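Sequence, structure tokens passed on for absentees:
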Amino acid sequence: MRMREADDEALARAAVHVDTPAALTEGGDVAVAIAAGSFAADRVRGDLAALVAGRSPGRTDPRSITLFKSIGASLEDLAAAMLVWSRLAA
């Protein structure tokens, strides 16, 4: 849980979304910041489904940053495989 691609400043500037609630404890970037006390879990705006469906706001202007933290949920792998399969089958 030590690996990070986004530092505390990036998290503070961004509208943070996660793939699953497990990202709060297992995903390096967000989990490390929460454990260190530099980012509060309640600042996570929502999950990917809510972001895509418009229930959770992402960018509010061209300078806004939306940060998505994925811990590799198997559902994402399945969706990618289904897309590849459907394109090959067509």
